Amino acid sequence: MTDKRNNDEKDQHLEIFRVTDKGKDMTTNQGVKISEDELSLTAGVRGPTLMEDFHFREKMTHFDHERIPERVVHARGFAAHGEFQLYENMERYTKAKIFTDTSRKVPVFVRFSTVNGSRGSADTARDARGFATKFYTEEGNYDLVANNIPVFFIQDGIKFPDVVHSFKPEPHIDTPQASTAHDNFWDFVANNPENAHMVMWIMSDRAIPRSFRMMEGFGVNTFRLVNQQGEAFFAKFHWKPKLGTHSLIWEESQKLMGVDPDFHRHDLWEAIERGDYPEYELGIQILNEEDEFKFDFDILDATKLWPEEEVPVKIIGKMTLTRNVDNFFAETEQVAFHPGNVVPGIDFTNDPLLQARLFSYIDTQLIRLGGPNFHELPINRPIRQFYNNQRDGYGRQTINVGRVNFHRNSLAGNTPSPVPPEEGGYAHYEEKVEGRKIRARSTSFTDHFSQATMFWNSMSDPEKKHIIDAFSFELGKVKSISVRQQNVDLFANVNLEMARIIAKNIGVKEPVSGGSTVTKSSPALSQLNTVKSARTRKVAVIITNGFNGPFVKAVLDSWRTEGLVPEIISEDLGPVHGTNGVILNATQNVYTADSVLYDAVYMVRGSSKDMEFNRKVAHFLDEAFRHKKTLGATGEGRQWLELNQYTNKSGVISSDNASEFAKQFVEAVRQHRHWYR
């Protein structure tokens, strides 16, 4: 494992905060060298501990206060450092230098997360995922706080406490963890129809991504771009993974919660460590202000998306994640994102959910990070020094020199002083606003089902089946028959046949009315239409002593060239000997490995006198086959295909020619799954 840290521009703003203990003398937090760290100071060998033991008190006090409140939502997260580079100058739409300067690589920090579960929950739960990016720009920090689903449950942020309360563990019993399969959530769904579109996404494969590296990101809210001339444009932001958008199978995600609850964390960490840097292209949907009302949906409604076929996504740059964190707590846990962290050229709209987020995000950091100075934590610091008259407070690290702490002043020459917009000072877009103070919403927000139906219409047959299965599982866990019935009746407005199948599966009355006349679809919403790549896919290579050395070596070398990641699995860990002196190193055995950890399986030679080993191999293959993964076999491994009647099936590869086999296998893995097998 190599150390990928360097001191170039993308790391300089954090370099001064990095400290290593390796090879150093132990000291107290005051810098006093410590002579003993395992024995308290006592009155004799059997006497009481003495209060004067300052080292004991300091060590224990720090330990007792190590934890901070976890996030209310997005508590379980994992992060990495990287860089963003612009492809194309976007000055036609914005004056933000991050979107106009193609020569500069902007350092970024990205945190992925689940929404529902606690910090100790599993990675692969059915849930929306956070995709938050902090850009450390020369104009200040810009945060793009996104999700892997382009819409949200609610239209107005005042209902945010309600939806979060509903999907969290029920308060009387504090279960279930990281799951919406309970009465409270589905009671909320049934009685708040605006969430129908979001729930369709949550029940889809999008809610169980294959990895963070194969997950889209969406800014959800509608923002404004403002150019140097003061012209404004509506915008939505998208992250498009270069590896395509792919998902787990529900059974896989459930099993992974036990086999490897940190599956997504491990996947991201290992990919970066071996140099398979995750890449995402940034896209923007842009609308002229005069086009605000020309669609059959309200562009400020966060429960609606802008179909890519109607408003194309313009790809403008690429982000690459190149370095793992040095310390999880200091970076991943203490990073503070806020959609209000913008730079000149990026502004807000009247999206009511966005307006609420602008308050909520900064408010939650105050309690979680202990006060108003969380921006001074190393991971949150901008690369440009900040100057203002703010002083003091919990966690203050800056030592402000001078007597003046107010504006306006004469003692410091009236500095620090505001900067005019033409010289880079932030100025809000001068939108004309007028109206009565009311608690109401535009009637254009009242259509709750058209886009939910469009999403259903856009799905392939396997994806539709997965949605029905997810509804059936979740609602099948609901104890209240009334809540089950209400939901079936609600989603009959999305698709009547879907609702009837779900009703039958969960034991309630099939709806007799409902249905939708919407025929619109958006092919971009189906994952079957995504980019398909074999790169970074993990292949389980099951092998025992005596394999055809030259053949297998040629196959593995070819796969590595194509970007596959083979992992050798045998009876025991360590060397596995083949013919012609070829030796492979088994890093897993069938007792520590599991098919759900891999994207494909290559069966080389798996017979053993140990019948338990043979049973494990048989189960390994059967599960991979059921999960629609690519299977390959050569030599003696073919008997496993024949024994289980896998031959001549889609995605099952076998050949006597190493080059041909390797090529066909890569092409099969590129398909992700063989849904129609």
UniProtKB/TrEMBL annotation:
GO terms for biological process: hydrogen peroxide catabolic process; response to oxidative stress. Heme binds at residues 71, 111, 160, 357, 361, 368. There is a cross-link at residues 338-361 (3'-histidyl-3-tyrosine (His-Tyr)). Keywords: Heme, Hydrogen peroxide, Iron, Metal-binding, Oxidoreductase, Peroxidase. GO terms for cellular component: cytosol. Its cofactor is heme. It comes from the Bacteria. The active site is at 74, 147. The keyword Iron applies. Gene3D superfamilies: 1.20.1370.20, 3.40.50.880, Catalase core domain (2.40.180.10). Residues 27-415 form the Catalase core domain. GO terms for molecular function: catalase activity; heme binding; metal ion binding. It catalyses: 2 H2O2 = O2 + 2 H2O. Its EC number is 1.11.1.6. It holds the Pfam family Catalase. PANTHER family: CATALASE (PTHR42821), CATALASE-B (PTHR42821:SF1). Decomposes hydrogen peroxide into water and oxygen; serves to protect cells from the toxic effects of hydrogen peroxide. Belongs to the catalase family. HPII subfamily. This is Catalase. It comes from Ornithinibacillus bavariensis.
